[in-house]
Amino acid sequence: MVNILITDEIHKDAVEILKRVGEVEIATNLNKMELKRKIKDIDVIVIRSGTKLTRDILEHAKKLKIIARAGVGVDNIDIQYATEKGIIVVNSPDASSISVAELTMGLMLSAARNIPQATASLKRGEWDRKSFKGVELYGKTLGVIGLGRIGQQVVKRAKAFGMNIVGYDPYISEEVARSLGVKLLSDINELCKVSDFITLHVPLTPKTRHIIGREQISLMKKNVIIINCARGGLIDEKALYEALRNRKIRAAALDVFEEEPPKNNPLLTLDNVIGTPHQGASTEEAQKSAGIIVAEQVVKILRGEPAENIVNLPAIPSEKMGKLKPYMDLAEKLGLMTIQLLDRSIEKVKLIYSGELAKEDTEMVKRSFLIGMLSPILLAGVNLINAPTVAKNRNIKVIEGTISESEYGNAIKVLAEGNSESISLVGSVIEGRPVLREINGYRVDIKPEGIICIIRHIDRPGMIGKVGLLLGDYGINIAGMQVGRKEPGGESIMVLNVDHVIPEDVLEKLKNLENIRDAKVINL
Ligand code: NAD
Fold first, then answer.
1. Transmembrane region positions (predicted)?
2. Would you say residue 317 has pLDDT above 60?
3. CA distance 97 to 103
4. CA atoms within 13 Å, Cβ hemisphere of 374
5. pLDDT of residue 487
6. Each residue of 146-193: pLDDT tens digit?
7. pLDDT over threshold 70, residue 314
8. What's the CA gap between 498 and 320, in Å, rounded?
9. What is the Å distance from ligand 1's center to 204 Cα?
10. I need a labelling partner for 389 at 20 to 30 A (CA). Which of 102, 112, 119, 215 fits?
11. CATH number corresponding to 3-94+286-302
């Protein structure tokens, strides 16, 4: 008999589904000691955000196979440790998109018409019809940052209000934007300049942190309204506070904050800020659907069927996988490099396998490549099961090919194209470890690990010294360096392994050095 423990409240229909496959115990509000005791003998645990499955809790699990998180965020689970222990983690990323989109519209209307402030005034016994004059949505330009699941739902609803929509999402194709009726802008600053309302729907990553900062706010129209139902860290709250105080920004409607719950957050002292306590997914329907989706995932896994929403993928059993594993690792690194180097919507990817690898079934290698390429830009886990579907949903064409001979032996060549730019990479496996052998036809020999800076430059005496000096001035240590060139005096590349993150302003200085064409930092 399968023992299933539910430690946060989930919808009764989800409980019914679970009861069909095992013995279900519901025990909410457990303290750490109780949870450690109970987790010992169970096969499946179903949680929401309330239960924290840290390492010291999971250490007590003796036969746990599945952690099911009803909802999206998995930051309350030690995924790495769960993976080490062979525990599968599933979630339900799709369940809340409509609810969040509806809250976004609700907050947009509330901010435009001062509904919360007017309600409070009415309840104070006032009848003030002047102070709360608002603005219409009709005919206004809405800037949508991030056109994924939620962003797209917001677009559909905003169109019904007669808004013109512009979008910023460098990883979405023109075609998808066109089908949504969104004018895709290639620069976030452009979106800030033209929008009357701005709404954010991107995941919080090192790249999107403070995506709305002082510079973006300075470019905005006076009286713009900002809505954030995504993640707090996306907006620089200090800069937002100043702009709201001096009425450059008319109003902000926030469901999320840099620190949650907010402690003495000055934004909440302003009369032109309205908000909700991270309630985007708090609807009957989203919670029902989150529960049902994870319950169905649990049933599928227990029956040995493929499940779509696996966040991690622990043991890959077959022997064959063992042989392919180093190539899967290499492919994932190549995918990570591809998205970071192209940094735009990718329309087509060609993967060419050579040597012995060309004779193998490379499906899992392809899927690993897609995981690397898609994970940095998407909120939900991309895994070996759902990777091809996620790629297809984003209109990415993936082609595989083989060549029997390559100077690198068993190797993977990647050719990726998007928005009229392309990139090529070649990687191989040496002594079981991935090695990058070519970037855009330039030979290199580097371990795809850590922080790497790739510089395109003209081959001139002293270039290496100039770069080293500049980075040294900012305390950035170079751990390794390689130069690749096709001919003396021509265009070349420099690849640096660095020990520290290169800040944006230093990267700009690097790009401005004489004879440097471009510089990019990637994280592997
Ligand atoms: P998604 O993964 O479906 O879509 C994210 C989109 O952002 C993708 O289209 C991606 O291409 C784009 N993107 C990635 N990096 C970008 C960048 N640097 N610039 C511009 N676009 C970029 O995610 P989703 O399900 O739509 O979720 C969007 C946000 O909503 C996330 O931040 C998520 O945490 C948040 N969320 C909030 C609540 C809530 O309760 N308020 C609930 C669910 C989700």
1. none
2. no
3. 10
4. 29
5. 84
6. 999 999 999 999 999 999 999 999 999 888 999 999 999 999 999 999
7. no
8. 36
9. 8
10. 102
11. 3.40.50.720
Nearest to 345 by CA among 433, 418, 423: 418
Any catalytic annotation for residue 278? yes
Angle between helix 284-302 and 12-19 (nearest 10): 10
Catalytic residue among 149, 201, 231, 394: 231
Which residue has 């019914």 as its token pair? 16
Angle between helix 463-473 and 504-512 (nearest 10) = 150
Q: Which CATH code is given to the segment(s) 450-524?
A: 3.30.70.260
- The tens digit of pLDDT for each residue in 382-416 reads 888 788 888 998 899 999 999 987 888 899 999 99
In the residue annotation, 260 being an active-site residue is answered as yes
pTM for the full predicted model = 0.85
Residue spans per domain, the chain: 3-94+286-302, 97-275, 313-449, 450-524
CATH topology identical between 3-94+286-302 and 313-449: no
Answer whether 232 contacts ligand 1 (Cβ < 6 A).
no
User: Which contiguous run of DSSP H or E holds residue 454?
Assistant: strand 451-458
- Catalytic member of 25, 260, 421, 514: 260
Q: Is the CB of 202 under 6 A from ligand 1?
A: yes
Scanning the structure block, which residue is given the tokens 């070996």? 384
How far, in Å, CA of 350 to CA of 417, rounded?
Answer: 9
CA of 205 to the centre of ligand 1 (A): 10
In 356-432, beta strands by DSSP E: 397-403, 411-418, 421-430
Find out whether the beta carbon of 379 lies less than 6 Å from any atom of ligand 1: yes
* Ligand 1 binding pocket includes 98 (Cβ within 6 Å): no
Atom of ligand 1 nearest to the CA of 380: 2
Is residue 203 lining ligand 1, measured as CB closer than 6 Å? Answer: yes
Which architecture, in CATH terms, is 97-275? 3-Layer(aba) Sandwich (3.40)
Up-side HSE of residue 157: CA atoms within 13 Å toward CB? 20
For domain 313-449, the CATH class is alpha beta
3-state secondary structure of 402: strand
